[in-house]
From TrEMBL:
The keyword Iron-sulfur does not apply. It comes from Saprolegnia diclina (strain VS20). InterPro entries: MFS, MFS_dom, MFS_trans_sf. Its main location: membrane. This is Major facilitator superfamily (MFS) profile domain-containing protein. The chain crosses the membrane at residues 100-120. It is a multi-pass membrane protein. The lineage of its organism: Eukaryota, Sar, Stramenopiles, Oomycota, Saprolegniomycetes. The keyword Kinase does not apply.
Amino acid sequence: MASIPPVNNRREVFANFDEATFSKAHLRAMLVAGSGFLVDSYDNFVIGLIVPMIAWEYYHQGSLPSSRADGWVKAASSWGNAVGQLSFAVLGDILGRKKVYGIELIILIFGALLCALAVWPVNGEADNVLIMLAVWRFILGIG
């Protein structure tokens, strides 16, 4: 059985990073990862601004009628994030990261478009807007 030689100096571990040069591939990877983080962060934080607007539009008050509805709408994306991270991590190992990132992007765009369309009350019920928004935000979170 082969053994790994001990590293006496911690600097030896990171010596390859010190000698590496910065290339266009590094810049592209940083921009792609950064834009993904930006979109995800925007999605998670903007709902705090949107929920009072929805409450004012459909319920004519500054907050939703129940804190439960408020929580469902705000947490749906986080639940979707957890499902998406777990499932796409496994799929990324099987199918490859580039292909899976493209699939995630398609799901994200699809979920965002459906969130934008969740503004019409179905059967005249304002609560249905919240249900649709929570479902579409869950799908958005998966992507």
